[in-house]
Write a structure and sequence with these properties.
The complex is a heterotrimer. By secondary structure, chain A is an all-alpha fold. Chain A is built from 10 helices and no strands. Helix content of chain A is 71%, strand content 0%. Chain C has a single domain, classed as 2-Layer Sandwich (Alpha-Beta Plaits), CATH 3.30.70. Chain C starts with a strand and ends with a strand. Classes of the chains: A mainly alpha, B alpha/beta, C alpha+beta. The structure holds ligand MGD (2 copies), iron/sulfur cluster (SF4) (5 copies) and molybdenum atom (MO). One ligand MGD binds next to helix 14 and strand 28 of chain B.
């Protein structure tokens, strides 16, 4: 027997099962898409939080994350050299919209940040180009925070992603990611305890929202009658994604930070703060990774028929 | 936008559609091969042809991946390691054709001088076109040892013989155009496999659409059963009991049968004496019947059939005689539905209902007008094939099923069970080919044509010493024999004074190491040959044991004036057209590939028997003058094909004409299709000749210590269990059986990656099917890796597919899979090698027709992890 | 004009002829199935039914795959055929997540069926049609249809289970069959309005 390649073998296995997992957006090069979405989400959130907390360093980090996210997207594409073609269908395509969002964010970000970090730049902070940059990057930020959930919820073949809470969840992720990065930056910048306290409180609130939305989404999938959505939850909680879910999403993303927060209500050492931040960010990655990976195609068979062996 | 140029409009130097024939199975559907710039880019069905009607099954339409397989043989190979075996590297060395042919010719010359019978020639059934050249070659050479390896042994010794005796044909099928109620006993014709496979798929679909009811008796709800109106699961190998119980209900409970048919077209009225033989007219030796009008026993030829008694008991010449039908009626009483339920597991109520449905739907006595001809109309058919015949009791299994047809006269009339084209009045221009069944002295039917060694009826007289290694001269009902490869062959050869031993094997394609039975057993028989030559497409498991392997041309590189044996395997039965397609080369040989038929001619030249071969071709192709081959003139195979075609279809229609037209066709006449009323022949519902045959055989074998169980040689069929039915070892509680996969041909096609891919997607192709409840009872799970093991400790491994669609005691394994050789790397390791479980010996062969028992009692256990 | 297909499940025997005919027509690489045949069973022993369900792109009247495509590579012709322009596709696979029928495949570059043994002359002749890094699917045999032929899977089906024609024409064979035999779609609730109909078994 000649094994053609692993992907092919996997596909054949998948096609044999009635509830076929999606793999294009999570495995092999698909991992770059998850990474890309993760980075861009965090970038958006960080940008927002940095603006709110007036953290210049945070803006820079957000921008860099955005660039990395963009590159990661390119690495995912089958034909990266044609990436610009994705600009063409904003009318119906969320990916197109996201493409614009990220492009505006990066262009705006350059305009806004360059004078702040490069004193010799041709335009100064507060100048018209910088102001335009500020506005454009803000629009881009809204775009990248907002679009991602819709990319998934408009994926009609994957019922697990189709819930209306999905876009909200992604916005919440972005904010939580932003706050988490903020916590890390705060450690480096050594801000006042006040700001830190506010930050941790906001982080707590956002995390709560994320958890509630997440539970809501899982509950929706389980209580609904869609076999594919139920299978997704099974895969998530007990199946092929469970390790990542328990280890990444739950332990690193929720339990560890929660423990740290509850243990040191005040005062927080800067170190733990950073750990909370890192754990939260990593947890976010796994949250996205696991929900994406748990995607299962809706079955094709029209009636309630049984596949051999199931 | 990337508009792909249409293949149709593309103008290149070479862009041609050629008319030829498929060869991925023996169905030989007509194809159009599209060649562009020397590459075959598509194979489609030829809509002009009655063979396939322009449509191909998955195997056929994917054939070019077999043709273009990079693992095909391209050069002649010679073994350098004299030791042969599973673990011996043959050490292949490329040799030139000249060297190869010289060496082979030297062996041929020596053997022909010593004893030509030492040469065994065998071929795969899959390429039917290989039959005629092989047949001519063996006839010219002078050896009777011509075999189809696993073919015939698995599919034909019962099916072909009984179809031949009862329908003058190789096989039977419902008249899809008119049949209203078909009952299948282990056949998938029209739904996956069988003769004229692809054509029948279309016909069966039309019948289904028209509303034909189809009942499928099968341990597995697979291809035919999936499309049936009713699936009747039964215990493997018990078909005879079920069919006989249905006959019993019809004859003794419902009393529905076709009296005029039985009187005129069968031996039902023949008087049988207490010795179970015909009471014959002392003067003419003709069997006697009871003339109800005169109240006397008279030769069957002397009494109008309507006056012949079917019942009663009459004293004739001092003995009590009873019409065969009366004896049949008595005999059937044993098969009460209740007792039969115990044998078959089919509920008695269902047996009664099915018998009633069949009998009533037969509309005994009705007629229909077709093309202005009034014909008997019996729109029911009971058919069988490999499934029910693949058992030790294959003769009776098959005969019992056909009795259903015979009782209601549903034989080769409108809507009934049809033979595959046994009557042909020939092309209007030449009246060729021409064949019509005829009667022997007892009034019983002799077929008009046959492709085996000898006609199925009358049987030859058993003879000693045996000339044939398969002992078919002793067991004269056997067409193919397991003894060419059995464990006990030497013992049998000694017993029957076979005065020589096989020394040389010429194999065409057959992968017999896989296709017969347990591989160790078969290998042992192969290792006894001094010299094996194999013509093959691939280095199969079998060809690896050869001394010389010759790279054959594929079907897309070959030429044949008859791509099939006309008109059994490929042309559908029923109304429509006669159609004689040819095969032509679409692309040239690759590397040093050469066509088999050409090589045989060359070998005859080198071994010095070209004149005999020419003469044999004259006989094989029934060449008429002036097209007969002369003396030892060196004709090419193309020239012989040309002669065949001109001889059959006229001077102007030679090979070139056919290359252009692909085929010739003409309409079938109703009298050809529904020939039974037009031909004065009878068929035996009572096999009177069987008992004496048994005695004659016993007279030879029993003094030599081989007991003939007489219950196999009774004139009326019984259900006789296989060894598996007697196995009650604890834990061995499944009857393993195999079945054809729709996407695979025997062992051949697993190497085709498209077909392999489809099979991998299929729930059953490469798995072992087990009933859900049975699996649960044993704690076995879907997808589990299991051992399937026989009492003799032969075992195979495979993955379980748990399904509701299989008899709780059945274990279904698809196809002829599980290749282990490296010569077909795509095929390697795919599926389950069922035949590993099969014994090949006298004990597992039918003592009547040498049919091998293909069901086996097994134990199924989970493979321990780590094993 | 809205080209559509009708597959008669009563006739279909699950022979994989369509799947392979499509392979032969298009020479699609391993792992790309414009046509496939699914098998399922219903019921309990001994009252069991085995079904075959041949699937292909439904050429939806409202194709979600087209909506989500950021580049316009997925598009619909005026005759209703939903197609992919491989020159525009960036390989984002959003369409694969949108098609409720699993009928799109990513050509990851695995181009020949015999693996290391190399591609066949047939595959080489067909390879030009299959750029890598893009998504592929059934195009209703657009070239054949333009040349006045039936799609390969329709022309080849040994049981004549597949029919092809204009769904907008009430007198076409496909329209008539759908009406007379109660043709149905897969996942009508998805609102995609498929142009492939099935007739009950
Ligand atoms: N388990 C199991 N056993 C079976 C069967 C089964 O279905 N399952 N079927 C039984 C039956 S009924 C039969 S008839 C036999 C069939 O058994 P075989 O006669 O062995 O037939 P195949 O396995 O189809 O093909 C054997 C080989 O023929 C070669 N071949 C194909 N085309 C050509 C060609 O054009 N030229 C040459 N030279 N060689 C070619 C290829 O190498 C192919 O692998 O097996 C029997 N045994
Ligand atoms: N697709 C395909 N077509 C082929 C072939 C092939 O390999 N593949 N091979 C060709 C050849 S060589 C042959 S001989 C023919 C064979 O053609 P078929 O006779 O149609 O072949 P099988 O599928 O072996 O047997 C038919 C059925 O018998 C069932 N069966 C098994 N045991 C029993 C039993 O004890 N009783 C009953 N009632 N049923 C039983 C099986 O489940 C199967 O459904 O097909 C020819 N055509
Ligand atoms: S039935 Fe046999 S001959 Fe006909 S297309 Fe299929 S494989 Fe070829
Ligand atoms: S080719 Fe026809 S019969 Fe065969 S699986 Fe496809 S639709 Fe069904
Ligand atoms: S079936 Fe899928 S790929 Fe085809 S048009 Fe509909 S949504 Fe698009
Ligand atoms: S993969 Fe290609 S066709 Fe599909 S959505 Fe992306 S760009 Fe469009
Ligand atoms: S219409 Fe053409 S491309 Fe589509 S599945 Fe059929 S053969 Fe393949
Ligand atoms: Mo066979």
């Amino acid at each position: 027997m000649i094994p053609l390649n692993r992907r092919y073998e996997q596909l054949i296995q998948d096609l044999r099962s009635e509830l076929r997992p999606q793999r294009e957006w999570a495995e092999n090069r698909g991992l770059f898409l998850v990474i890309g979405h993760f980075l861009v989400g965090v970038a958006g959130g960080t940008w927002l939080c940095s603006l709110l907390f007036e953290l210049r360093g945070g803006l820079a980090v957000a921008f860099c994350l955005g660039v990395l996210g963009g590159l990661s997207h390119l690495a995912f594409l089958g034909r990266p050299e044609r990436f610009w073609k994705m600009a063409l269908h904003v009318r119906t395509s969320w990916i197109s919209r996201g493409f614009w969002g990220l492009s505006l964010f990066l262009i705006g970000g350059v305009l806004y940040l360059v004078p702040q970090f490069l004193p010799g730049a041709p335009w100064r902070s507060g100048s018209v180009p910088a102001a335009i940059g500020y506005v454009v990057s803000l629009i881009g930020m809204v775009g990248i925070i907002g679009y991602m959930g819709f990319v998934y919820s408009s994926s009609r073949a994957i019922p697990f992603w189709n819930s209306p809470t999905h876009p909200l969840l992604y916005i919440a992720y972005a904010l939580r990611g932003g706050m988490a990065v903020l916590l890390i930056i705060l450690m480096f910048e050594g801000r006042s305890p006040d700001a830190t306290l506010t930050a941790i409180k906001v982080w707590l609130v956002v995390t709560t929202v994320v958890v509630v939305l997440y539970l809501f989404e899982i509950y929706g999938a389980v209580s609904g009658h869609n076999p594919a959505a139920r299978q997704s939850v099974r895969d998530l909680l007990f199946g092929r994604v469970a390790v990542y879910f328990y280890g990444g999403t739950l332990l690193i993303g929720i339990l560890i930070p929660a423990m740290l927060v509850s243990g040191f209500v005040f005062p927080l050492s800067m170190g733990t703060l950073a750990i909370i931040g890192f754990a939260s960010v990593i947890g976010d990655f796994f949250m996205k990774y696991t929900t994406i990976k748990a995607g299962v195609y809706m079955p094709l068979y029209p009636r309630v028929t049984r596949q051999v062996g199931h | 936008m990337n508009i792909i140029e249409s293949d149709v409009t593309r103008a290149t130097a070479d862009d041609t559609w050629l008319k030829s024939s498929c060869s991925l199975c023996y169905g030989t559907c007509s194809i159009l091969a599209h060649r562009v710039d020397g590459v075959v880019i598509k194979v489609e069905g030829n809509p002009d042809s009655a063979v396939g009607k322009g449509r191909l099954c998955g195997k056929g339409v994917g054939g070019l991946m077999t043709h273009y397989d990079p693992h095909r043989l391209r050069v002649p190979l010679h073994r350098t390691n004299p030791r042969k075996g599973f673990n011996e590297d043959p050490g292949w060395k490329q040799i030139s054709w000249d060297e190869a042919l010289d060496e082979i010719a030297a062996h041929l010359r020596r053997i022909r001088a010593e004893d030509p019978r030492k040469l065994v020639v065998q071929r795969t059934t899959t390429v039917t076109a290989s039959r005629a050249p092989s047949q001519a070659f063996v006839a010219a050479f002078g050896t009777p040892n011509f075999s189809t390896a696993g073919g015939g042994l698995h599919c034909g010794n019962g099916a072909h013989v009984i179809s031949g005796v009862m329908h003058a044909s190789w096989s039977v099928v419902p008249d899809f155009e008119y049949c209203n109620y078909a009952i299948y006993f282990g056949a998938s014709k029209g739904h996956a496999a069988g003769h004229a496979s692809c054509s029948n798929m279309g016909k069966a679909a039309d019948a289904r659409f028209r509303g034909m009811k189809m009942v499928v008796v099968d341990p597995f709800c697979n291809f035919a059963a999936a499309k049936a109106t009713e699936w009747v699961p039964l215990r493997v190998g018990t078909d005879a009991a079920l069919a006989l119980a249905m006959c019993n209900v019809m004859v003794n409970e419902l009393k529905i049968y076709d009296t005029p048919y039985l009187q005129a077209k069968t031996n039902a009225p023949y008087l049988i004496g207490p010795d179970q033989l015909y009471i014959r007219d002392p003067k003419t030796q003709a069997p006697l019947v009871w003339d109800q009008e005169s109240g006397t026993a008279r030769p069957f030829t002397a009494v109008p059939s309507a006056r012949m008694a079917l019942r009663g008991s009459f004293t004739v010449n001092g003995v009590v005689g009873r019409p065969a039908f009366a004896l049949l009626g008595e005999h059937l009483k044993k098969y009460t539905p209740e007792r039969t339920e115990e044998i078959t597991t089919v509920p008695a109520a269902n047996i009664r209902r099915l018998a009633g449905e069949f009998a009533r739907e037969a509309r005994v006595g009705s007629t229909i007008v077709i093309d202005g001809v009034t014909l008997p109309y019996r729109p029911v058919a009971a058919i069988a094939f490999r499934g029910s015949q693949g058992h030790m009791n294959s003769v009776y299994n098959f005969l019992a099923v056909d009795l259903l047809n015979q009782l209601v006269g549903a034989a080769d009339v409108v809507g009934s069970c049809l033979g595959f084209n046994p009557t042909c009045y020939g092309h209007p221009d030449t009246k060729l080919p021409y064949y019509v069944p005829k009667a022997d002295a007892d009034g019983l039917m002799v077929t008009g044509m046959w492709m085996g060694y000898h006609y199925p009826y009358p049987t030859n007289k058993p003879r000693m010493p045996s000339k044939q290694l398969g002992l078919q001269d002793v067991f004269t009902m056997g067409m193919t024999s397991p003894f060419l490869n059995s464990t006990d062959q030497e013992m049998l050869w000694e017993k029957f004074d076979v005065p020589y031993r096989p020394e040389m094997l010429i194999n065409y394609g057959a992968n017999l190491l896989m296709s017969i039975g347990n591989k160790d057993v078969v290998a042992e028989s192969l290792l006894k040959y001094k010299f094996i030559v194999s013509f093959d497409l691939f280095l199969t498991e079998t060809s690896v044991l050869a001394d010389i392997v010759l790279p054959d041309c594929s079907y897309l590189q070959s030429v044949d004036s008859r791509s099939n044996f006309p008109f059994i395997f490929s042309l559908p039965a029923g109304l429509g057209e006669w159609c004689w397609p040819i095969r032509q080369a679409v692309v040239p040989p690759d590397g040093e590939q050469r066509r088999y038929a050409d090589v045989l001619l060359e070998l005859a030249d080198r071994a010095g028997f070209r004149a005999d071969l020419n003469a044999a071709y004259n006989a094989t192709y029934d060449l008429q003058s002036p097209f007969r081959l002369e003396g030892d003139r060196k004709y090419s195979f193309d020239e012989i094909c040309d002669a065949d075609l001109r001889s059959h279809f006229g001077q102007e229609r030679g090979l070139d004409w056919f290359k252009q037209h692909g085929l010739i066709k003409w309409p079938k006449k109703p009298e050809e299709v529904y020939w039974r009323p037009f031909v004065d022949v009878r068929v035996p519902i009572y096999w009177e000749f069987l008992k004496p045959l048994g005695e004659q055989i016993a007279a030879i074998t029993e003094p030599r210590g081989l007991k003939i169980p007489r219950h196999y040689y009774q004139p009326l069929p019984d259900w006789i269990g296989c060894p598996s039915h007697a196995c009650d070892a604890p834990g061995f509680d499944f009857y393993a059986f195999y079945y054809r996969d729709i996407i695979h041909t025997n062992s051949f096609t697993m190497e085709n990656p498209w077909l392999d891919e489809a099979a991998r997607l299929d729930p059953f192709s490469y798995t072992i099917a087990m009933n859900r409840a049975s699996a649960e009872k044993r704690g076995l799970k879907h997808g589990a890796l299991v051992w399937v093991e026989t009492e003799k400790r032969r075992k195979v491994k495979g993955r379980l597919a748990v399904t509701e669609g299989i008899h709780p005691e059945g274990l279904g394994i698809a196809a002829l899979a599980g290749h282990w050789g490296d010569g077909m790397p795509i095929a390697k390791g795919k599926g389950v090698f069922f035949n590993e479980l099969l014994e090949v010996d006298w004990e597992h062969s039918s003592p009547v027709n040498l049919n091998l028992d293909l069901c086996v009692k097994v134990r199924v256990t989970a493979v321990e992890t780590g094993q | 004009m809205r080209l559509g297909m009708v597959i008669d499940l009563k006739r279909c025997i699950g022979c994989y002829g369509c799947q392979i005919a499509c392979k032969a027509e298009h020479g699609t690489p391993p792992g790309v199935f414009y046509a496939r045949v699914l098998k399922r069973e219903e019921g309990q022993y001994p009252n069991v039914k085995q079904f075959s369900l041949p699937v292909l792109c439904n050429h939806c009247e409202e194709p979600p795959c087209v909506d989500v495509c950021p580049t316009g590579a997925s598009f619909k012709w005026s005759d209703g055929i939903v197609d992919i322009d491989h020159d525009k596709c960036v390989g984002c696979r959003a369409c694969m997540m949108a098609c409720p029928y699993n009928n799109r495949y990513f050509n990851d570059g695995n181009q020949n069926y015999f693996g290391d043994a190399g591609s066949t002359p047939f595959e080489r002749a067909r390879a030009a049609r299959h750029p890598t890094g893009v998504v592929m699917k059934c195009n209703f045999c657009r070239d054949r249809v333009r040349a006045g032929k039936m799609p390969a899977c329709v022309a080849n089906c040994p049981t004549v289970a597949r029919h092809f024609g204009d769904l907008d024409d009430p007198n076409s064979e496909v329209s008539r069959l759908i009406k007379e035999r109660g043709g149905f779609n897969l996942h009508p609730e998805a609102g995609t309005k498929p142009s492939v109909y099935y007739l009950p078994a």
